Batch of 2 targets.
Target 1
Amino acid sequence: MPRRQAEIMDAAARVFAAKGFHGATTQDIADVLGIKQASLYHYFASKEIALETVCIVGASGFYERAKIIVDGADGARDKLAALIRSHHEPLADHADYIRVFLHQRQFLPSTSRRKIGRWSRGLERLFERVISAGIKDGTFRAGLDPRLATLAILGMLNGVPAWIDKEGRAIDVIASGLADLALGGLLRR
Amino acid sequence: MPRRQAEIMDAAARVFAAKGFHGATTQDIADVLGIKQASLYHYFASKEIALETVCIVGASGFYERAKIIVDGADGARDKLAALIRSHHEPLADHADYIRVFLHQRQFLPSTSRRKIGRWSRGLERLFERVISAGIKDGTFRAGLDPRLATLAILGMLNGVPAWIDKEGRAIDVIASGLADLALGGLLRR
DNA sequence: TTGTCTGCCTATAGTGTTATAGGGAACAGC
DNA sequence: GCTGTTCCCTATAACACTATAGGCAGACAA
C-alpha cells in the first residue's frame, strides 16, 4: 500500500473507531487529513470499501499467528498462554483498526463480511482445539465446556481495546495478567 | 411507561441493536411497528431521546442488584459468583436493550452519557471491592491485580450478548459456567 | 518539450433523513 | 352532545451526506 494511502486509511480507521461507520462522515476523515472531502475518492472508491480495507487490516494476522502457536510443540497450557499473549500484539501499533474490525464489520457488504467472519470462526476453532486437547491430556479441568471457555476467553480479550487506553497499564502486563487469570482463575489454589 | 410506548421502545431497541444508532433510521423503527415514520414523534421527541430511553432501560438494575449482593453477608467467593450470575438476568427479557446500552451509549449527548457512565463505573467498583476483599482474606490468590481482574471479568460478561442467541445454551448454564471459569480458571487444581 | 502521474481542488447532482405542522377518526367520561 | 385523549395520518421543509465530473499544478521521465 502506497505511503499516502496508508495515511488515508489511518485517518479512516481513527474516525470509524471513534464515531462508528455510519456515524462517521467522509468529511470527518478529510478533516483529520486536512484535505477536502471529495479528494478522498482518489484513494478509495466508496466509504464502504474504505471500511473493508480497514477491517481486513484489523483482522489480519490474528489467525496466522494463532495457527503457528497451535501447530507448535508446546503443551496446552503454554499454547493457551501464548494464544492470549499473541492476541495483544497488534494492539500496539494499530488499535483503531482492531476496534473497527470488532464493532463495525457488521456493516460490511455481505460478501466481505462473510470472508472476514470465516477468519473469526477459524480463530475460535484454534482456541477450542487447544482447550479440548488440554482437557483430554489432563492439563485442564475435566468437565469444562470447551466452546463456552473459548467464548469466555475471547470475550475477555476482545474487550481489551475498549479500555486499554484509559488504564495506565503496559500491553504486555495486561497480556500476561489475562493469560494468568484465564489459566488459574481467582481462587487460591 | 404506557403499554404502547413500551412497544415503541421495544422496536427502537431491536432496530438500534441490529443496525446501530446511526445506521438505524426512524423509518426502520416505524416499519417494525407497521406505522408511518412521522407517527413515532408522538412517543419520543427525537431519535436521540429514544436512544437515551433504551439505554437507561438497558443499564438499569445492574448496579442495584450488584449492590445488594456486595452488601450481603456472603464471602468473596460466593459474592463474586452471585455478581456474575446476576449480570445475566436481564438478558432473558430484554437483551436488545442491553446490546444497545453496551455499544450505542457512546452516541448519547454528553449529559446523559455521563450519567449512565457513572452507573458503569459504580458497577466496576463493586466488582473491584469484592475482589480486593477476597485477596485480603485469602479467598483469592495473592498478587492479583483487582482492577485488571475486574476488567477481564466484565469484558467476558459483556461479550455474552453478542453470541448468546447463536450458541444453543440456556442462560443459567452460561451464567454458572462463566462464574466457574472466573473463579477456578482452566488449569486442573 | 511533451506526456504522465500524483495529489488535490471546485462545484454540484442526487438522494436519504429528521423533524414539524396540521389534521382526522375512534373512544371515554361527563 | 360536548370535550379531551389516544393513536395515527399526509405533506413537506430543511438539512446532511455520498459520489461524480472535470480541472489544475508540480514532479519527473523520455
Note: Chain B is about 70% helix and 0% strand.
Target 2
Amino acid sequence: MESYEMLPRDFYERDPALVAGDLLGKVLVRRMDSEALSGKIVETEAYYGEKDPASRAYRGKKRFNEVMFGEPGRAFIYMVHTWWLLNVVAHREGEVGAVLIRALEPLDGIEQMRENRGRSDAHDLTTGPGKLTRALAVTKELNGIDITRDDGPLTVVEGTGEGFEIGSSHRIGVRRDLPQELRFFIRGNGFVSR
DNA sequence: AGGAAGATCTACT
DNA sequence: GTAGATCTTCCTA
C-alpha cells in the first residue's frame, strides 16, 4: 500500500454535512490480520440529532446509538434489515451527528471483498451501504472504535487528491427527510449506489 | 413475551 | 418497479 496520511480528529469536529462532503475522495481502510482492504469513498449522507427525523438519534440517547452522542472520529455501526451500516461520528462540540458511508470504489483487497460478498462483479461489491460493510467485514464489533488511530482495524486516510465534481441530493431510503439535500456523491463515478 | 420498525438488498416480473 | 427476506433493537403489555 502507498503511504497515507490519517485524517485528524478535528476533521470530524464540524457540521456533519461539511464532513460528509469532505469525506468524498478519501480512502476507507479496513485492516485485517492478513491484509488491508480499502476503497475510495464516493457517496455519503449526513445525519443530525434530535432535530432530524431520519436520524437514529432522533428519539434520544439509547444504548445502541450512544456513540453518536460522543467523541467525533469514532465508528457508529448499527443494523437495518440484516445489514450493518457504517457511519463516522461527526458533529460540533456539544451536538450530535454522524456521516453514513454509502458507497466505495474498491482499491486494495478486491479478491477478499469478492469472497466476503459472494459476488464477482467489482461494481456489486461496495456500491451500497449494506454491501460495503459485508465486503469489508465490518460488524457491530467495530462499533465505537477510534478511526483516527493509524494502528486500528478501521481508519480514513487522505486520497490521491484527484479533482472531481460533487453532486448532491436528498437522502435515500429515509421515511422523513429534512428539507436540505444531505446526500453527497462524486459526480460521474460508476460506484455510486444509484 | 410479542410486535413493529427500519439510513437494505435480492430476485423476480 | 415491486415484493419478500431477514434480524437487531426498542416499545408496550
Note: Chain A has one domain: 9-186.
